[in-house]
Amino acid sequence: MKNLIIVFILLASSVSAQTELEKQFGYANRLFDNEQYFDAVTEYKRLIFFDTNNEYSKTAHYKIGIAYKYGGFFENATWHIGRALSFTKDNDTRFRYSTDLIRVNLLNSNFQNANRIIASMLTDSRYVNHYEELIYWRGWSEMLNNKWELAASTFGEIELGKELKKICNEVLNSEYNVTFAKVISYIIPGSGQFYSGEYFSGILSLGWCVLWGYDSFTAFANDRVFDGIMVANFLWLRFYRGNVQNAENIAIEKNRQLYIKTVNYLFTKFEGMKP
What we know:
The chain is mainly alpha-helical. It has helices at 2-33, 37-50, 57-71, 74-86, 91-107, 111-122, 131-144, 148-155, 162-174, 178-187, 191-195, 199-221, 225-268.
């Protein structure tokens, strides 16, 4: 009889503990669903501490990871989603957690890690039916890494990437050729700036080069060799080189602005899947 009472007490305690864990889990979920992510993380961590049987730990770690992702704490998000992965063997759940891990790495500009996970999953027979989505995230990795031509080619492999391939090609058609801007600036000072749409800067570069070139030529023509050398070396050559460097910098900056504008559009207005 005494033994039965002890067993009954232990069972009652166990049921009570599980009931409290269930309540804690529900409370944390409500906070998460209401986008109170900071408070949700605190409650999920408290749940994990008391969940000695790891009944709720998998989902708790995953939700913490997503909460950290929304808060911009990408390293923390990566750790917790990875921890959630260690608790699950279900293929569908593993795929979902793994793709979330890829997306967090993309947001954190950790393209090497993202590509490593993608490559591993592409060779895993468990995910053979998810080929298109994995290629889709590879395209995103290339795109966010400013490899627009490679991204366009990758998106072109799948139906899912049709719209993004079009966007990549628009970027490629709109960006400036930095090498071309430099070369034409060597030939005609200011032309690289004109090519990039900076007409005032182009006029200034052309004007200064013509002015000091003419001044140097005049000095040599009038046998003022020293004056000609000084003007050519310290004025004309300086503005000539500066013109080439300026043309390169303008083209690079214009491309950078184009990339930023496109990425902003992708994250705010693009209706497809995004990190």
